[in-house]
Amino acid sequence: MTTAGLRLNVLGSATPYPRPDNxxxxxxxxxxxxxxxxxxxxxTLAALQRHVRLTDLDAIWISHAHADHSADLLTAYYAxxxxxxxxxxxxxxxxxxxxxxxxxxxxxNGPERxxxxxxxxxxxxxxxxxxxxxxxxxxxxxVEHGLPAFAVRVDDGDVSLVxxxxxxPCAKLTELxxxxxxxxxxxxxxxxxxxxxxxxxxxxxxxxxxxGVGRLIITHVGPFLxxxxxxxxxxxxxxGPIGYAAPGTTIDITPMP
Length: 257
What we know:
Elements (H helix, E strand, L loop, with lengths): L5 E7 L13 E6 L2 E7 L3 H5 L10 E3 L5 H4 L1 H11 L8 E5 L3 H9 L8 H4 E5 L5 E4 L2 E9 L3 E8 L4 E4 L7 H7 L4 E5 L14 H11 L3 E5 L7 H8 L7 E3 L5 E3 L5
Parallel strand pairs: 3-4, 4-5, 5-6, 10-11, 11-12, 12-13
Antiparallel strand pairs: 1-2, 1-14, 2-3, 7-8, 8-9, 9-10
């Protein structure tokens, strides 16, 4: 039995490709014996196995189809169906519309479509999607990233975590994050872009302030910033506690002060 409470293990936070000591975006969220893999970016499956076997997961949740958030679904498919794991039922997979066909397009190498649905039970996300997974309530909102993309709020009845996925600043993310205990927010852009598709660190701080969150964790820091620079810049627009999602770290989600 695991300890009760909401806990986030950072599997990786690199973008747009993995680094020697940092896989791409991926997190293991646990509450008691409930385990959810949030985003499956390149390299995160290996890091996930430091904590849990694939077959012990309760669900996988994918924010959008870019490879640095979803590529390890491909290797997870082979692990679940063709390796040493014994899958008793398909693993619930929550992801953007069309995710099953995108996986099958890549995995199919002959005249018959690869049996993606033998490995995963697909639940397509939409704005306002809700799911109950063990003691956790997941609420999804559509965000702005130039393709179907989603942020998620996870509540266990005592504390709440919001994960931005990849997105420009937008009202739906702010609404989703309102008074959450911890906001895990991307800060990919060193400078604003046109059109915006990511947060800058200052944007992340502004979103956290507007939502009235208890704590801000910066993640998905782009290659033209150091984590320290990103945290310092976010502090210019958010006065609360700020951290960085360093790979390999464990973050306990605690109530806001």
